[in-house]
Each structure stands twice: as C-alpha cells, then as structure tokens.
Amino acid sequence: MVSDELWDRLEPLLPQRERRFRYPGRKPLPDRDVLCGILYVLHTGIQWEYLPKQLGFGSGMTCWRRLRDWNEAGVWQRLHEVLLAELNAAAKLDWSRCVVDSSHVRAPKRGIHTGPSPVDRGRAGSKHHLITDGHGTPLAVLLTGGNRNDVTQLLPLLDAIPPVRGRVGRPRRKPDSLFADRGYDHDLYRNQVRERGIVPAIARRGTRHGTGLGTYRWVIERTFAWLHGFRRLRIRWERRADIHEAFLKLACCLITHRQLGSLC
Hints:
Layout: H1 4-10, H2 31-44, H3 60-72, H4 75-89, E1 98-106, E2 115-116, E3 124-133, E4 138-145, H5 154-160, E5 177-180, H6 187-195, E6 199-202, H7 214-227, H8 241-261
Parallel strand pairs: 1-5, 5-6
Antiparallel strand pairs: 1-3, 2-3, 3-4
Protein name: IS5 family transposase
Organism: Streptomyces coeruleorubidus
Domain Insertion element IS402-like: 2-80
C-alpha cells in the first residue's frame, strides 16, 4: 500500500527508537508495515480494534500509538513541507491565488474541538478548515468545533501555511490573492488580509450569485471531495483531537503526493 516513492521521502523523517541493551524485549514491528496499517484504517474507516492481524500490519493499538508518536514528532507536517517544496521546484504551485473553505463532519463521540452544529440540528460535530493553492493542492488544514464561524479561521489558516522552499530566494508562504465565499464576508478581515499584502476576493452577502468567483473556488470543493474520499475523515470517531488532526494531515500529504505523481 505504501509506494517506494512515498516511503523514500517519509523514512528519513521518522524518529529512531533505541532499543535497550539488556532485556530489549520484543522487536518492534517495521515502520513501513505499521504505516500500511494506518493507511488501511484511513482508507476504509475501520475501527482500530478490528484491524485484521492477518494482514501483517500489527494490532490496531500498535498502529494507533505509532500514529500518535509520529504526529507528536511533527512527521506529517515535515512530510507535507517536503512534498510542497518539490511541487514548488517544479513550478506546479499556483501562488497567484489561494482558496479557503470549510466542511462539517459529525463527531458522535464528541471530544475536544467539537460543538453543536448549526447545519446538523445541533448534533456534535467538527469542522475541517482548508486552504489550497490555485490548483487545489492543500497548503494547510485546521480542526475546530462545528459551531465555529468560518471567518474566525481565515487568518489562522494563512498563518498555518508553512514556508515553502524549492526555488531560489526566500521560502514562500504568502499567495497574491485570496478567494472565499460569503461565509468569510467581513470588512475587518478583508482589511487584515490586505495588510498582509494579499488581495481579498471575498463574495459579499446580499449580492446575486454568479459573481464568477466559483470559476476559481471549485478547486477547493474538489479537494474536499478527495479528503472525504478517505472514509475515516467522513465522520470523526476520535475523541482525541490530535489523532483526528493526524489523519487530516496525513490525508493532505497523500493528496499532495498524488499531485506530485501527476508530473511524471
């Protein structure tokens, strides 16, 4: 399940565990096998305890612990930056504009970063806040409660864009313009976006549809479709926010890697 190309980029980023000289215990399962188990859960949405052991990926708890540890070590964030740098070096990132939007998912088990959803009869839910480049490549993703207003995450999303290397000069982390729907319509935030040297193109409430912004915004809807193609992200089953965020970041890495594969 893990391609050689992806593994070659990921393996140097994984933290190395030192075994005790005396009483070393059972030899840990290879990281690549465990990663296959994590991806199996991400793709199928199966519960950790039902991960089939005959597949050779180890137990669900082993995969859960490894996902937690790698997320705490910043592995997924660094992998995402590596992939973005390769795309940037190939001039395949569209910095002329970025697009922001959010998507709601139910959270039956509640937990941190959940809240009563105004679009799901007040049931507990979370929001995935996403920012992409002009081609729909994920630049950053955030997790909040389902009752958080979209516009409150506009500046945090811009701040979450990592410094993208790959070209001569300073790493880039700021697009030329920003496209968003009516949920982000607020002059205070428009001014703050302008102060960062970014041109805001945000639809205004009360105006007729058909402004033409959808010509540029459709890419983020496609990226959300890709994200929720991973069944584990359609419903948030994790009480712990960091585990769900780890899945989100890993999914963004996989989407970015696909974009990189399209260059071949």
